[in-house]
Amino acid sequence: MLKSNQSYLSVINPSVKLVTHILLMIMLMSLDDPLTTFCLWIFFLIIGISIGGWHLTYLLKVLLPYTFFFVLIFWMMAAFGKGENVLFHWAWFRVTEESVRNGLNISLRMLGFVTIGLLFTSTTDLNKLMMSLIHQFKMSPKWAYGFLAGFRCIPLFQEELSQIKAAHRIRGYRNYGSWKAFSRYAVPLLTTAIRRSERMAIAMVARGFTGTRERTYYVNPTVSKWDYGYLISTLLIAGVIIFFVGSY
Q1: pLDDT 10s digits, 1-43
Q2: Are 156 and 196 in contact (CB under 8 A)?
Q3: Are residues 111 and 181 part of one domain?
Q4: Quick one: 237 and 121 in the same domain?
Q5: Is residue 38 domain-shared with residue 77, that is, in the same domain?
Q6: Are 86 and 156 in a shared domain?
Q7: Under DSSP, is residue 212 helix (H, G, I), strand (E, B) or coil?
Q8: I need a labelling partner for 238 at 20 to 30 A (CA). Which of 23, 26, 68, 228 fits?
Q9: DSSP secondary structure string, 79-106?
Q10: pLDDT for the residue numbered 44
Q11: Angle at alpha carbon of residue 110, lines to 46 and 65, rounded to 5°
């Protein structure tokens, strides 16, 4: 679930932040140079450490598991890629300069996507995001509150699933097949979800929620100069990195 870490980046309007990070991902996808991709990834890390409230322990905790995928993607792309300048050849492994370059670029791009996503999820509050989508992107309140209710139910479903598993263990149930286990868990969870959604709908209608845009809001998020500053400065610095490092 999205939860803000109370850093400077958490003050930025979520819609502006979302647009900025999507544009950064598009810029990252357009790169084919590993060095430029690496420099952009370092830039994302600097943003997280300087204004995102990240610490070294947090980085090790969230990014260390992705190093396995980094190595795996790099090896798959390098060992089975195409190219003419062969660096290593043994059995069905054929490592070339082109495949190593492509593998580094793809794996670093993956780390860049993960870092950009963490920059958004670790500094954005779910309620503020939905309110911002309603006011800045003119999203329908029906969709916004529906997504909000769905996200809020995820921890409840996880808790109920653990309770169902504990009840099955107490009764001596053993998992003899994935499909059988899926049906045993899915049916009660689906039943509970239907009941909970019905109660939510009745509660919202009872409090006057109709889904129309003509309504009052307790919080009215706006776009300030600091939001525009983050958008412009981040994209400008990323563009400078791409221009100078790419032409090096």
Answers
A1: 566 677 889 999 999 999 999 999 999 999 888 899 999 999 9
A2: yes
A3: no
A4: yes
A5: yes
A6: no
A7: coil
A8: 68
A9: HS---SSEEEEETTEEEEHHHHHHHHHH
A10: 95
A11: 80
- Are 9 and 123 in contact by the 8 Å Cβ rule? The answer is yes
pLDDT at res. 167: 82
SS3 241: helix
Least confident of 123-132, 190-199, 235-244: 190-199
Q: Are residues 95 and 27 in the same domain?
A: yes
Q: Are residue 13 and residue 82 in the same domain, yes or no?
A: yes
- Domain extent at residue 181: 139-206
Report the number of distinct structural domains present in the chain: 2
91 pLDDT more than 70:
no
User: How far is residue 28's CA from residue 108's CA, in Å, rounded to a whole number?
Assistant: 10
Same domain, 14 and 79: yes
Q: Which of 163, 222, 221, 224 lies closest to 192, judged by CA?
A: 163
Domain assignment present for residue 216? The answer is no
Assigned token pair, 98: 């082109």
Burial class for 94, CB neighbours closer than 10 Å (0-12, 13-18, 19+): middle
| Separation of alpha carbons 45 and 228, rounded Å | 21
With respect to residue 3, please indicate whether it lies within any of the assigned structural domains.
no
